[in-house]
Each structure stands twice: as C-alpha cells, then as structure tokens.
Amino acid sequence: MPWQICRAAEQDLMEFLQPGYGVLFLLSFSAATILPFGSEWLLWLMWSQQFAVVPTLVLATAGNTFGSYFNYALGYWAHEQLQRRGRLTGPGWQQAERWFQRYGVWSLLLAWLPLVGDPLTLLAGILKAPWQRVWWLILLSKSLRYGALYLIYFYI
C-alpha cells in the first residue's frame, strides 16, 4: 500500500512538471513586464487540453504578479539613477507625480490592465510607493484578473 501512495504522488508530481506549467509561469511573468506578451491564450489553451484548473490559475497569477513586482523593483532602483542624472524633474514627471498623488497607490488595482498596468507598477517603484501596500494591491489585481478569465472561460 505505501508504494501505491508513492506512485500516485509521483504521477501527480510528473503531471505538475509538464512543460506547460513552467511555460505558463514564464509567459505570465513576461506579460507583466514591459515585454509585449500575453498569457491568456496559453491559459485557455491549457484548459482546453484538460490541464488542472487550480495549478494553472495559481501559476498564471503568481507569474503575472511577480512580473509586476519586478517592474516595481526596477522602478525603485531606477529612482536613484534618474535622480542622480536630474531626470525626475520637468513637466512630464511633475504630471506623473500629481496623478499618482491624486489616485495614489490604489491605482495599482488597475495593474491587471494591458498597456496601463506595466507603467503603473514601474511608476509606483520610481515614486517609491510603500512596498507592503503595493504587494497586496498587485496580488489582488492579478488574482481578480485571472479569476475573471476563469469565469469567462468556464461559465460564459
């Protein structure tokens, strides 16, 4: 009996390690950076091929969330470089700062939006938004995004 449990666990692990899961994570990560990728098509393709729903949702959400965290960290690091070079002045940056001050860190709830979310997370880093709040808002935004994709695919 114990060998049957081990064999079942091994099969589950091997299924989880199929290339599709790793590719989904990497594509979701890349899609959240400034690279022009999308991950929805692969997620839907995997569901159509009977990949497990929970692992695909978790990996797509995690990859996309970590991609946004990468943008935030890149912006946080870039702040020092831009400040040293005097590039955080001028009307463009003043307008971005006013916009971010007006809508605040809560604007990161829009981090899931294509074309808008990537610059938002980068801007949050450049403007040194508090990472704890950034972390939760991005996670919530990305979770809601992939939850909505799940509902669209399976119920609409």
TrEMBL record:
Keyword Transmembrane part of the UniProt annotation: yes
InterPro entries: DedA_domain, VTT_dom
Record-annotated membrane-spanning stretches: 21-47, 53-78, 103-127, 133-155
Domain (VTT): residue spans on this chain: 41-149
Keyword Transmembrane helix: yes
Keywords for this protein: Membrane, Transmembrane, Transmembrane helix
Record-given protein name: YqaA family protein
